[in-house]
Structures are given as C-alpha cells and as structure tokens.
Write a structure and sequence with these properties.
The protein is mainly α. The protein is built from nine helices and no strands.
Length: 231
Amino acid sequence: MDLRNHFDLAHLLGHPPFDHMASAIAVYEEANLKRLFSPDQHHPGHWMFRGADVEGLRRLELRHCIYAVVMYQAMMEKIPYFMPTMGKNFKATASLEFKGSWMAMLAQIPNQADKQSAIGAFERYHADIYVAMRNPIVHGRKQVDIDNVNRIRMPAVHAGMRSGWAAYDALLTAAFAPDQVHQPSWSVMCESHSVPVELDPQDYPDLMELSAQYNRRHLDWCNKLGGAGAA
C-alpha cells in the first residue's frame, strides 16, 4: 500500500527503532545466559575466549543502537511537519532546522505545565540523542566522532528515545484536545516490540569494559603462570 501522507511515513520509520532496541537488549540476555557477566564463573584459561565473546556481543549492541538512533531521528524529523494536520490546535510554521521546528510546535501547547514538561523532554532528547549520537554518526568527520559513536550504549538510547516519545505524546495530547483524549503510547510501543518500558542501567554493564576486564585477567593469569614457571 502506498503511503498517504507524512504521518504514514513517520509511522513507518518509528517502529524499526524499537525492533533494533529489542535486539540490543537481547545481546545482554545472551550474555547473561552464557554467564559472561561473571568472569569468576569461568576457568582462567578461558578468559581470553570469553572476552572475545563479549566483544562480539558489544559489536552487535552498537550496530543495533546505531540503526535505532538513525531511524528514530528520521521519525522525529517528520513530526513537526505533519503535526498541523493532526486535529486543529497547531499552525504550520516556516521551514526551520530540526530543533527550531520542534520548538515552534512545542510553543503552541496551550497548557503551560504541559508545555514546559514537553520542552524539557525534547531538550533531553536533543542533547542525548541528536547531539551526542546522531550527529557523530551522520555528520562526523573526525576521530573524536568515531570515539563518540563507540560510546553509544543501549541504556542511553532507550532513555533518549523515551524522552523523544514523551515530547511527541505531549504534542498529540494537545493536538486532539478537547475533543479526544490521547493516551501516552510509550508503553504500547515498547510492549508491542518486546522492549521493557523502563530499564535499570545497572542491569546492563558496559560490555567493552567487561571485555577489557576479561583480557586483563587473562594477561595477569599468563604473567602469573610465567612467573611461577621461572621460579
């Protein structure tokens, strides 16, 4: 079926990021099943191999996080341009860059408390996803941009997406009021894609650091064996 409008396109773009988020979370589930979070549960002779296992899972996590960030941002780019077609409470604004177009829409939310909450949510999204992740991925030209991409982790992507969705929900709530009541839909999107609505970052240790820990332990163990042999 052909797309009818920009809302259809945003809807199409909005679902895959949650699928990629689910895949990034599955990486940690696999690590847990293999008992990789606890080096002491493995024989020292296996630490090098387990470190390689963790490094491979980290590459999968990063890949899915990059896909989630890029596609989610594509959805966020569309929202200010179709919002004036939703309900009757928003007016179209002149074409602006990404943050400006969003701020112009958010400024039209009539309830002051809702407006400030939505602006705060969007600003968190802008800082944590758009600036810290999307820009290094899409526009990065220097080594520092690669370093920033390599720092992207699933818990931060989940939190950033949630902030962006909160801002989107606020726009939809204002767009349909007072004739319709819009129910916040973050939990609906998460549950339909098998993504936890909330995450505790402590449940998701840094896989690169964990891989490095395995490697350090392996080297220390080899040095200890070498020293014992020399003695």
